[in-house]
Amino acid sequence: MANSGSPRSGSVPSPARYGFSDAARAEGQLRAAGWWTDSGPTSTAEPVLAALSRAPDPELALHSVDRLRESMGDGWGELSEDLTTDAGLRGRLVGVLGASRALVDHLVAHPDHWRRLRSDEGSPLKSLDEYTSVLLEAVEAGDGSGPSGTADGPVAGLRGQDAVSALRAGYRALLLDVAAADLASVVEPDVPVMAYEDVAALLSDVAVAALRAALSVAVAELAHSGVDLTEEPARLAVIAMGKCGGHELNYVSDVDVVFVADDEKDIAGATRLASMMMRIASASFFEVDAALRPEGKAGALVRTLDGHLNYYRRWARTWEFQALLKARPVAGDADLGQRYLEAVQPLVWTASEREGFVSDVQSMRRRVEDHVPAELSDRELKLGRGGLRDVEFAVQLLQMVHGRGDDTLRTSTTVDALRALGEGGYVARSDAADLMDSYRFLRGLEHRLQLRRLRRTHLFPATDDAEELHFLARAAGLRSSGRRSAGSVLVAEFRRHSSRVRRLHEKLFYRPLLEAVAKVPTEALRLTTGAAVERLAALGYSSPEGALRHIEALTSGMSRRASIQGALLPMLLDLLANTPDPDGGLLAYRKVSEALAETPWYLRLLRDEGVVAERLALLLGTSKLVPELLVRAPEVLRLLSDTPALAERDPGEVAQSLRSAVGRYSEPERAVAAARSLRRHELLRIACADLLGLMEPTSVFRALSSVWVAVLEAALDVSVRSVGARSDWGSVPARIAVIGMGRLGGAELGYGSDADVMFVCEPVGDADDTTAVKFSTAVVEQVRRLLGSPSQDPPLEVDIDLRPEGKRGPVVRTLDSYLNYYRRWSEVWEAQALLRARPVAGDADLGDRFCRAIDPMRYPEGGLDEVKIREIRRIKARVDSERLPRGADPATHTKLGRGGLADVEWTLQLLQLRFGHDNEELRTTSTVEGLAAAARLGLLEQQQADELTEAWTLAMRARNAVMLVRGKSGDQLPKQTRELVAVAAALGYPAGVDTGEVVDDYLRVTRHARTVVEHVFYEG
Question: DSSP H helical segments within 651-766, as ranges?
């Protein structure tokens, strides 16, 4: 960066390099601080200058340093020295100095408070009890055996303005502690990031401590005026509501409270105490708002517990029960507060039984939105569309609807409630995770905005306010990216999160799912008129008459089944309308329903578990493979409400379970039928989790490979036993190992992949090689026959064409026979094929010995000579020109197309053949791991490895998506629009995406990969 503003030559460093726009002014301030000389920064100042450059506002940070230095006088040297050596202090203090003018003012007024932020002082963050003690000590409150505001509680020694000043200073000091810990990681990257939930909980604890301290001052004030509450005790409980009650308070916020007295005789004294506490707290800390009490501001400030209950039982409106979700006793009489909570909680969890409860909550949210000025709606973090209230209202509605029967949902904290909703299956886990992510992001922005001047604000900066956007982006930990400024990055992130919140809010809050599952209006059940056809066409059904026939078939008759279908269909039709193929989805739903007509729990599950109906609609409207499998594995439906069971099963556990189940059968046909049935279940489970976005691509590949191996091993075990029991043998004369090749060897199978394998054997006991091979061949032929025999399940082809001599060679060889062949006759392409060989089933020791023995062939000493490199390139060129199917588009053919699977895999395999002997990291059968290893070893640039990995993963996902959508395998991206829309959905694109964008994304990714292939494979 140029030394603008510096009087010296360009060879002398300028403060401008640290982000200071006014270099001359910055240099003067740095010199005054003792951090700058004629030759640039002092020898010890570099860490401080680097920290200042990372501050949200470097100019403000340095100016604040100057103000603090002047206020400290002779004490500045100690702080200056500590800043150069204590990274924790540096992060905390510079974070505050560069983010909050209000807290800088506090530090200037109380310069010794910097010591609170030293690392050797231990954590500046305290518990609620410690916070309370700090503030009570500030007002010289005497010891008390009970809580503040009770007869035996502490009474402040300070009153009036002295008490307010002491409380304000003590409270600001505690805010300083929290803000410093919150901001430290922005300035010092090695400092752990503090989670939003932890910040909000600490701020809530500080606020509660403040209320308790204000109570002790209120008692002193009343005693001074002649009302001695220690002589005439009035039992008062302070109940926190809103964000304070939910442990999720902002830096600057009103604190909502409700006051409860124990008895009518306590009302007068309790009201005086509550009023005085509110005045003191509002003057010292924040506005204390009691408007959530019964009858609002028109109602009595304090009521007895019975008075509260009578009101809630007779007069309370829906929103008042919603507000009680966050009620929490925080100050005053603890026993009374707990009794209040226990009394009102049952009312909260039965409120959803009230007539029109769901619509009441929804209309209330709309009214809140309507009060936001239209010109500010898109900038309102709290109340606008896609704002914080969208998350909170959706979560609270779902809590109150489902929390009646599920205690895990009864939490006052939004993030905890979202997590519980996801884990309980009431919300898709991915939706819950997305909402939590966006909620944290938006709350983080709200915190940073409020810290600037410690003012209550929820307004995102205008898009033309570059200065505020830049500050907020840096305060949020965002930096410039490529050609985009930090402010532009922030705006993009803000819009992304707001859009996501709004989409998920609409999905969870306004859809008819909640009401439809419980009760559907009668007029909506019979769609038998022309108006029904028009409605179906409007929803997006291309053949509304056909859809109507499906509906009539599902709802005809007087059976209970037809009645439930009538209640479900209005909601399901809406859900299916938002899928890529509503007509195909409805047809599939009819077929599944008819196939499961005698399954007693099927319709009950859809009726009672909203998330199952929602997920099933998405699956049926996207995939033809899922309904085909579902009619033969209906038990997987139950997993749709249990995300961990659906998406997080360990592949090893699945394989063990399958082998154990199959091991109970002695007849080969029955054993393999059972194995294929269990594979069908797993294939469907994985497909559902994949389509719902609940499994990472590599987890899908690994899970599909693992279940294939388990079936193969089960078939081998039963075949060894049955063939060995024949009279010809009488025993088992050989051990057999199955060597996985190709994508099975790499644990990278797709839904339609065959299993490429080789079989190796060796004699047992007195048996000779000939006997071992003959026995093993009989076993292998039986395995292939059993797995490949026609059935209603997906076929299982065991492909052995990669064996020596291909289709002309023996089905099974001994280890020595393989080695003799490879040493004498093998060609370079066979060494290449062996790169993915790994033992997958059968005798593990024999499999390991085979793989160790072939290492010299696949990782040749000295790598490949130029002749063999040219041969591999020649074979690859021939594959490119001859193997691509007639009429295929090489740009979008996932296997053999430009930048597709073959391009990436051959490139990696050439590197493994050339350098694998000297680099053990390269000796992996996994494509993704191999590319990562090549980057670590410097054989690929990191960007090249990333581009190859991205293309390979996308091509694998696209092949899988085609299989899921069509129900049959294919290597070409579809050209038909509806199929391509479904493939896009299976790839995770949002509804309504332009299919041109999907193809453009694929072409862009594979084009980058092809460039790397041409450079590394053909030229390297």
Answer: 651-662, 668-691, 697-724, 742-745
